[in-house]
Write a structure and sequence with these properties.
Elements: E1 6-11, E2 17-23, E3 26-33, H1 46-68, E4 77-83, H2 87-104, E5 108-112, H3 113-119, E6 143-148, E7 153-160, E8 163-169, H4 175-185, H5 193-200, H6 223-239, H7 243-274, E9 278-282, H8 289-302, E10 305-307, H9 319-331
Parallel strand pairs: 1-4, 4-5, 6-9, 9-10
Antiparallel strand pairs: 1-2, 2-3, 6-7, 7-8
Helix pairs in contact: 1-2, 3-9, 4-6, 4-7, 5-7, 6-7, 7-8
Bound molecules: 5'-O-[(R)-(carboxyoxy)(hydroxy)phosphoryl]adenosine and zinc ion.
Length: 347
C-alpha cells in the first residue's frame, strides 16, 4: 500500500506568517497571517515583524492543522524557510520548525525562499479542469521562471525541481521595490504594488513615458526608473500641487506599463537565447494583473506555454515551502537540527 507523505511547512521570511500542510505534494491547507503594523511606516520594520511572527506562529500552525484535518502524529517531516529574508523573522520560523521536528522525532527540510517561489508553479491545481487554455497544469523541464518579488528579480533556468540556475537578475532595486517606492512617492501606503495595480486598471498607460534602461545581457535595473519618476513628480507638482490627485490612474498605469515592459522584454530575450518554451512567473509581483495579462499575450505571440501560480501562491506563502520540501523529502535532502537561518541570497 502507498504510504502518504504528509508535511508541515512554515514560511516567515518577511512580513507574512504562514503554515501549510501537504500530502503527496497536494496542498491541504495554506494559512497566511499578514502584518498590518508596517503600513504606517512605508516599509517592513524588522523588529516589529519578528514580534508579530512570535504572536502569530502558534495560532497559524494550529489553524493549518485544523483546516487540513491532520494530527501532529501524521506528519512525516517539517519544512521551513531557511533563507533569504529578515534574520529575526527567519529565526522565529526556523526555531519553531526545529523544535517541532525534534519533539516529533521527524526530519527537517530547509528550503530556499526564492527556489520556493519558482516551485509554486509545480503546485497542482486543486481543480485540474480550471487551468485554462488547454496547457498542461504544470510546466515541463527545462522551464524558465521570472521571479519578481519585493526583494528579488531573477530569471531562473530550471533543469529539475532541485536544480535551478539564475541566468539574469536585478543590479539594484527589485521589481516589487520599484512598485513600492513609486507608490510611496505618490503618497500611497505600503505595500504599494497592489494599489498601483488597482489604480492602473482605470488609467491610460500611454499618457506619460518613463525611460527603459539599456542593461546588457539578461540583467535588470530599476533605480533609473525610480529617479525618473521622482523628478517627473517634482516637476509636475511644482507647477500644479493637485497633479497627482487629478491624474493618479494614468500615472499608475504609465509606471506599471514601464515596469512590465522592462521585465518582459528581458524575459523574451532569455526565452529566445535559451530556446526554452515553457515559461512561468512567480513572486509577489506576479500577482499584478497587468503583468499576468501582458505575459500571456507575449506568450501567445512567441509560442510559449505560459504558467502563472494562483494568487495565493504568488505572494509569500507556506504552500510553496511545502512543495519544495516535498521534492527535497523525495530526494532525501534532509537538514540537521543545527541548520541555521540565513539572511543571505546565495542558493
Ligand atoms: O514575494 P513577496 O510576497 O515577498 C517577497 O518575497 O518580497 O513580494 C512582495 C512584493 C511587494 O513589493 C508588493 O508590492 C508586490 O510584491 N506585489 C505587487 C502586487 N501584489 C504584491 N506588485 C504589483 N502588483 C500587485 N498586484
Ligand atoms: Zn517572497
Amino acid at each position: 500500500m502507498h504510504k502518504a507523505t504528509t508535511l508541515l511547512a512554515i514560511e516567515s521570511s518577511c512580513d507574512e506568517t504562514s503554515c501549510a500542510i501537504s500530502r503527496d505534494g497536494v496542498i491541504l491547507a495554506n494559512i497566511i497571517a499578514g502584518q498590518a503594523v508596517h503600513e504606517q511606516y512605508g516599509g517592513v520594520v524588522p523588529e516589529l515583524a519578528s514580534r508579530a511572527h512570535m504572536q502569530n506562529i502558534v495560532p497559524v500552525v494550529d489553524a493549518a492543522l485544523k483546516k487540513a484535518g491532520v494530527g501532529l502524529s501524521e506528519l512525516n517531516a517539517i519544512a521551513f524557510t531557511q533563507s533569504p529574508g529578515l534574520i529575526g523573522s527567519l529565526l522565529v520560523g526556523s526555531q519553531f520548525a526545529k523544535s517541532l521536528a525534534q519533539a516529533l522525532a521527524i526530519p527537517l527540510l530547509a528550503v530556499h525562499h526564492m527556489q520556493a517561489h519558482v516551485m509554486a508553479n509545480l503546485i497542482a491545481p486543486a481543480d485540474p479542469e480550471a487551468d485554462g487554455a488547454g496547457w498542461p497544469a504544470t510546466p515541463s523541464f527545462p522551464f524558465l521562471c521570472l521571479t519578481v518579488s519585493g526583494g528579488h528579480t531573477q530569471i531562473v533556468l530550471c533543469h529539475s525541481p532541485l536544480k535551478m540556475e539564475v541566468i539574469g537578475q536585478t543590479l539594484d532595486d527589485a521589481a516589487g521595490e520599484a512598485f513600492d517606492k513609486s507608490a510611496r512617492l505618490l503618497g500611497l501606503p505600503y505595500p504599494g504594488g497592489p494599489l498601483i495595480d488597482k489604480y492602473a486598471r482605470e488609467g491610460d498607460a500611454t499618457r506619460f513615458t518613463f525611460p527603459e534602461p539599456q542593461i546588457p545581457g539578461l540583467n535588470f535595473s530599476f533605480s533609473g526608473l525610480k529617479t525618473a519618476i521622482l523628478y517627473f513628480l517634482q516637476e509636475r507638482t511644482a507647477k500644479d500641487p493637485g497633479f497627482v490627485a487629478a491624474n493618479l490612474p494614468d500615472i499608475c498605469a504609465s509606471i506599471q506599463g514601464r515596469i512590465i515592459s522592462i521585465l518582459l522584454n528581458k524575459y523574451r530575450k532569455a526565452a529566445r537565447e535559451t530556446r526554452v518554451t515553457d515559461l512561468c512567473i512567480a513572486g509577489g509581483v506576479s500577482a499584478n494583473s497587468g503583468l499576468r495579462k501582458a505575459f500571456q499575450e507575449m506568450g501567445r505571440k512567441e509560442g510559449w506555454n505560459t504558467f502563472i501560480p494562483p494568487f495565493e501562491y504568488c505572494t509569500d506563502n507556506a504552500a510553496m515551502i511545502a512543495i519544495t520540501g516535498y521534492y527535497k523529502y523525495l530526494a532525501g535532502e534532509f537538514a540537521p537540527l543545527s541548520a541555521s537561518a540565513s539572511a543571505r541570497t546565495e542558493w
